[in-house]
Amino acid sequence: MIMKITVIGLGFVGLSLAAVLSSKGYKTFGIDIDKKKCRMISEGYPTFFEPDLEKTLKKGLKNGLIISDDFSLIEQSDLVFVTVGTPQKANGAIELSMIKNSTAKIGKFLQNTRKNPIILIKSTVIPGTMKDIILPILEKNSKKKAGKDFGLISNPEFLQETTSIRDTKFPHAVVLGGYDTKYMKKAKSFFSKLHPRTPIITTNHQTAEMVKYANNSFLATKISFINQLSNICQNIPDANIDDIAKTIGLDPRIGKLFLNAGPGYGGSCLPKDMKALINFANSVGVKPILLDAVENVNQKQIQQIVKTIEKKLSGVSSKRITIMGTAFKPDTDDVRDSISIELIKKLLKMKAKITIYDPRATENTKRIFGDKIFYKKSAINALDNSQCAVFMTYWKEFERINDKSINGMKRKLIIDCRRIFSKGRINAEYYALGIGK
Ligand code: UDX
């Protein structure tokens, strides 16, 4: 009999997974409570930009991928992946309402199924959530027993936006957390067929939940480390953080990735997961000194940029400042927790006149700022009349900016947080994060 797979929550993780599974020929159902989103996706259009996603989704739809808001599809399913968001509350703690609602619904439909499905939780949740919250909700609503009538496995996801299709197809590891039951054996066999070359780590729920935070907090630590060094370098004449990163990255104990100094880490995961982990550590009586410092460095980074702008412009009030790049990283239209958005907010408070250019994220930026700032359709237009350009996101097309492109600037002052022009290719008053003056 053909295996049927349901994916609940069609954000980056869920939609990538549903698209990849269906494109590989698995009978897949993608469920989301948002009807409008479901309609767009079932017509082949993801609700956000992600390289290769549309192509993979279209292939999946051709293979019979069903997108729906109907949770009863769970009754036919052998595997149910939960990929709903776990955002954060104002105090940094994790917000579990979406996962609680969706597991309650899953429980209700588990009651009717004659199958013994496996529920796999991909959403990032703090250690203990599976045991203390998800399992009781599922058992109560289904009137069935986990481990006996259905399987329950923690299966954290490590995909990165902009490479989500590749990461879904070829993850660096598969983590399966839960009890050693027949369901665990089944899940192991499913994943070893899906990813024949990927190591599978089996462990308990709490460890699997913690692995995800360990992963993301280590990445955040690497970024804050290089950002701190970058700040030191800026005070050593001609010191260059990129040469330092490149060299230490050759040491296999360090590794070359995530050593790109910049305005700090943003996006929908690292900042949120760091705050959730810090909050959790405090709640179990551990003072997270290192993690606090990592976050602190991240927050200071933007203050440093504001200070530099202020100093070079002798105050920002009513000055025309252009922000180049608002996406939290290149090749995405995502501006969630983007440092660039934070910077604009701060500069607006200080009464600067802001113009932005981003090759993909303009629409999402408009949703935040409306008519409070100006939006331009090209880099050159955005630079015209500007008194200061701040490069925040390393979009490849920015490499084409040259002396001619900045001709219209009122004052040729460039603050380059990504060192796009650090090789001296531009004739301007030039300040680069991580390069000593
Ligand atoms: C991250 C994790 O990498 C991924 O494993 C997890 O599943 C989700 O969170 P993502 O949010 O897509 O993925 O972004 P990532 O590529 O990690 O970048 C996060 C932020 O760090 C961005 O603002 C980026 O610009 C910044 N960053 C990253 C740096 O400033 N320097 C680096 O060297 C790397």
Polypeptide structure, described:
41% of the residues lie in helices and 13% in strands. The protein is an alpha/beta fold. The strands form 3 sheets. Strands 3-2-1-4-5-6 form a 6-stranded parallel sheet, with helices on both faces. Strand 4, helix 4 and strand 5 form a beta-alpha-beta unit. The radius of gyration is 24 Å and the shape is elongated. The chain starts with a strand and ends in a 5-residue tail after the last strand. The model has no long low-confidence stretch (mean pLDDT 97). Bound molecules: uridine-5'-diphosphate-xylopyranose. Uridine-5'-diphosphate-xylopyranose (UDX) binds next to helix 8.
Secondary structure layout:
Elements: E1 4-8, H1 12-23, E2 27-31, H2 35-42, H3 53-62, E3 66-68, E4 79-82, H4 97-112, E5 118-121, H5 129-142, E6 151-154, H6 164-169, E7 174-177, H7 182-194, E8 200-203, H8 205-233, H9 241-249, H10 270-283, H11 289-313, E9 320-324, H12 339-349, E10 353-357, H13 362-369, E11 374-375, H14 379-383, E12 388-391, E13 413-416, E14 429-432
Helix pairs in contact: 1-3, 4-5, 8-10, 8-11
The protein binds uridine-5'-diphosphate-xylopyranose.
